[in-house]
Queue: 2 jobs
Job 1
Amino acid sequence: MKLDARRVYLSAPDVGSVEEAYVMDALRSGWVAPLGPQVDAFEREVAARVGRAHAVALSSGTAALHLALQTYGACPGTVVIVPTLTFVATANAVRYTGAEPVFVDCDPVNGNIDVGLVAQLLRQLRVSGRRVAAVVPVDMFGACVDYGALLPVCAAASVPVLEDAAEALGATYLGATYRGRPAGSFGRAGILSFNGNKILTTSGGGMLVCDDPLLAERARYLSTQARQPVPHYEHTEVGYNYRLSNVLAALGRAQLVRLDGMLARRRQLRERYAKLFASVPGVRLLGDGDPGANCWLTTILVDPERAGWQARDLAAHLAAAEIETRPLWKPMHLQPLFSGAHALITGAAQRLFETGLALPSGSALGEEQLGRVFGAIGQFLDER
Ligand SMILES: *Cc1c(COP(=O)(O)O)cnc(C)c1O
């Protein structure tokens, strides 16, 4: 079955003949199982790409977050610091461990975690005697957090960092201290997602990346039902069934071959949107065009006072033309699921949620479809 050909999607999977060839090879090899040679190769290739010594391929990015947090010692009675502006998976994974997520507001320019607030919260939590198992910065929409500022703050408090780079494969950090380092390389461990709408997809999948062989080994063990190394099935603790299938790893390897091309297309789309909106008052791009970002989803921010219209007006106009858009993540501290959670809030994330709109940004987006998107946006702006 094909996706609806008339509809323009936000970030449709970009899969073609290279992927078909890799997946067929995996099927013909007989390795239709979780694990196998494709998984091993995919792990090595992704680890090299993000500058890590070890990688563990898993069934989702959420599973990678869960296992990483468990290896960090997150458990009932501990606290994990999470940005309020993120996909719910980041906070859900904290809940799986029994730890308590505490939310922090974001930088109004790029939506990444506010490092000043993290420092303040770490001080507060120390005074109240809480044990903080981890800080989980999220590279929002594929733009790296300011690690030059964040890592020293966390190191000073002796709290390990887990980088949620689910959206950020292919992004580069361009700030101070760590200039040029890839997303996924920061903190004790990082996680990636290969969900269908992410930059690189295995249809569903994820990866934990780190430099510590013991951490990788522990995650691998927990992901395969925590089986003891004896011939029969012996278990001393709770494990999970979280490994990636060999067939899906083959799909991931094909996507990795094409990654630079897919990144270039997403960057080109951001440039075109930037030009289109450059002369429109009250509109700017989330992240102000950070050249290190992977441009996963190009997002505009609309100041209704200056623009004379709201992001949701454009969303409705595009929806009528069968063009998919999406608001930014609804902040976690505003979610019924996390009502009552402790949070340090400035209002920045809520404002981004209310004024932001992610535009069709997938690398599979063709010129004909893009022409339709630009035509519909042009018509909307002309009518104002
Ligand atoms: C997609 C995403 C995840 C979860 O990844 P899955 O592979 O869908 O489980 C986690 N965190 C963020 C920020 C994401 O965007």
Job 2
Amino acid sequence: MDAITHLFVYSIFFSLFRISITQNSITPSQSIRDGGTTLVSADGSFQLGFFSPGNSNSRYVGIWYTVSSETVVWVANREASLSDHSGVLKVTDGGILVLLNSTSGVVWSSNTSRTVENPVAQLLDTGNLVLKDRNDDDPEKFLWQSFDYPCDTLLPEMKLGWNLVTGLERFLSSWKSTEDPAQGEYSVRIDLRGYPQSVSMEGDSIKTRPGSWNGLRFTGYPQLRPNPVFEYEFVLNEKEVYYEYKLHNTSVFSRLRVNPSGVPQRFNWVDRTQSWELFFTSHTIECDNYGLCGGYATCNTNKSPVCACLEGFLPKSPKNWDSVLDWSDGCVRRTPLECNGRDGFLKRTRLKLPDTSSSWYNKSMSLKECEGMCLKNCNCTAYTSLDVRGGGSGCVLWFGSLIDISEYSNSESGQDLYIRMATSELEHLEKKRRSAEIKLVAIIVSSALLFVGMTIVALVSCIWKKKLKTQGTTKISHGKEDMELPMFDLAAIANATDNFSNNKKLGEGGFGPVYKGKLPDGRDIAVKRLSKNSKQGLNELKNEVILIAKLQHRNLVKLLGCCIQENENMLIYEYMPNKSVDFFIFDQAKSKLLDWHKRINIIRGVAKGLLYLHEDSRLRIIHRDLKASNILLDNNMNAKISDFGLAKSFGGDQIDSETNRIIGTYGYMSPEYAVHGQYSIKSDVFSFGVLVLEILSGKKNRGFCHPNHHLNLLGHAWKLWIEDKPMELIDELVGNSCTLSSVLRHIHVGLLCVQQRPEDRPNMSSVVQMLTSESLLPKPKQPGFFIDSPTTDFSGKHGTSSANEISNTVFEAR
Ligand SMILES: *[C@@H]1O[C@H](CO)[C@@H](O)[C@H](O)[C@H]1NC(C)=O
Ligand SMILES: *[C@@H]1O[C@H](CO)[C@@H](O)[C@H](O)[C@H]1NC(C)=O
Ligand SMILES: *[C@@H]1O[C@H](CO)[C@@H](O)[C@H](O)[C@H]1NC(C)=O
Ligand SMILES: *[C@@H]1O[C@H](CO)[C@@H](O)[C@H](O)[C@H]1NC(C)=O
Ligand SMILES: *[C@@H]1O[C@H](CO)[C@@H](O)[C@H](O)[C@H]1NC(C)=O
């Protein structure tokens, strides 16, 4: 009993004590001064007071988390800063919150259309600052609340959207910069045209489109799923349209913020580390760029090129579509609609639904009614269910062009869309589908027959060989394999290259000079004349070449054949008209031709080619000399890796015993390879990382110089990364064609690849996955070789930055 009394007294004492030092509200007789106290919400989570963002001297009134005072979630006077510490925040008798400066001028104020008897301004546990009557806690009766005027942060229980009765729009808008909370260029809002959708804007234009709500999530936001931290809902009725989330456990903080670069990011507070952890960051993939593919086309990040016309549609500007990779004109119908009841619909699945700004909806119609409704209106181009839950309900109709559709590979993410087509076009597509099916069946049947046939042949030849063996002869002919790889005649090659004339020389490749040639049939070829120091026998060489020829992938240069004759060993490749990546990225004028999309496409191409060499080909090839000049570009600027497979056959062992030389190129070599001659697939990953950073920055790693430090490109990138300004790495010539998060992801992956320890670097399958998804990435550690050159490890003198980088430079090792 005694103990309970004690406890009671203590708790009263404690709460009195608390009230005396912190308060969560002010009345007209009180005020908050700059440099004085702050308001603290009753549960202690949030505080309100004066602050200066970053290194700025301007003063603002804001609300922040008690655990993390630099995390400001709301700013009152974001457009009107105070220049000194004389600000005072007060509540007027009429129930208006005012911020006064030293001369009692009103710098900022809240507004209201009503007055109450006993006004107070109170900071609630949710982080909402409200003006209300002291005795009335009904949210409907608040005079004013900060949640109605969001800045860049959406807190739990805050509504993002519209009050349709008063016309109040609540939207997120970025800060101008980390030091200026004034409204910046970027906003996230709900677009009320047609069926309401969520959009992320830059000024007045849509940048990315999470899209319409399908009952479970926004159609373009498959990451939004039930999770242990928060639950969410989208409300759409006559009075309100908004998105909102609530915490499962209010002692776990989570916030959604649009950063000054316009990227929506969700952070969760981690108690253990006392820091915010990035839980989700938005639009990191190419297809998220609004309208990238134009009308009537789909975007698929896993395909190359990413854009494709819907079935039954053709590119509107075929020239731009195929060669310049400019898809913005979109596609047009192959067969016009007839609109006299003779149209039908093609069903597509797993899609992000198109822009709904010119759409119409009804929540209670069935899909069948929806179809009928669409057929009745000649301008209707597509329809689908409004809500996918429980087999689907409701109806959305689209009018006019279908814009910003993406294709998902995961069936859970996408939705069905019924696209209107002329009946004749539908019949045509159906016929095509049938014949493809028939072909497939034919292939299956014929391969089954072939299998049976081959089994018989194998059996027979087995018996035959046994018979031969017993007779003492084991000669097996190479004739069949030779047929797989065309052997070119030396005279023909000499002819095609004007007898290896200097005019035809394309460059000095890794293993000898390369010439351009033209075959009598008109085909352009590239001829690699291998240096003559190969000690291999003719048959061994042939076998190696045959193996290389078997490596076929769209991101590898295709080997057409070889010529092994009179002491000459030559490889004949397809000719790449656009030369190599270094030709573009390191040249002021030409690098403008490589915008962000093309650069991403090249990086992905190289990643996929390398993944094939490392893991998917039968041979497991380590390239050992991956670099910008070994990445060739085809007509459509797709990357093709060259010089693969040669290191093994033509480069000898990792350290050639006679010359003591290492194959590889300065600036691309991993530390363990350069220093100890150890190479593995992770050395290629290192070279890949260097290449990525070079493509992003337009600077060479080797020979990189900076006025302020002696680091090489890797060191420079790492420095910017840890100083939290990675964007400064990017080639200014890339222009505005890139999205911040995508850039950050590529820099991040580049840094992961060049980490000092091989075991820390990801393998190529992880790299490909990291580049094409939005998964969270591990933190990179310090890169290997971040000082200008590895010569310091050998000779003790600092390497001079000679920027000339002849292909396949080799260096002396002791
Ligand atoms: C205070 O604010 C008023 C009104 O905004 C303005 O006219 C006045 O110049 C300000 N005084 C100072 C010292 O900034
Ligand atoms: C309050 O101010 C905002 C912006 O200044 C204005 O749009 C809104 O109509 C005002 N509300 C009332 C109730 O006066
Ligand atoms: C909420 O989280 C806190 C701290 O992580 C934990 O102690 C508490 O048990 C949780 N409450 C509920 C209802 O899960
Ligand atoms: C929506 O469809 C239902 C059923 O067809 C109909 O009763 C209702 O009037 C429609 N609502 C609107 C706004 O058109
Ligand atoms: C179809 O669109 C045209 C042009 O936008 C418009 O004039 C016409 O009224 C529309 N027809 C229907 C049935 O909505």
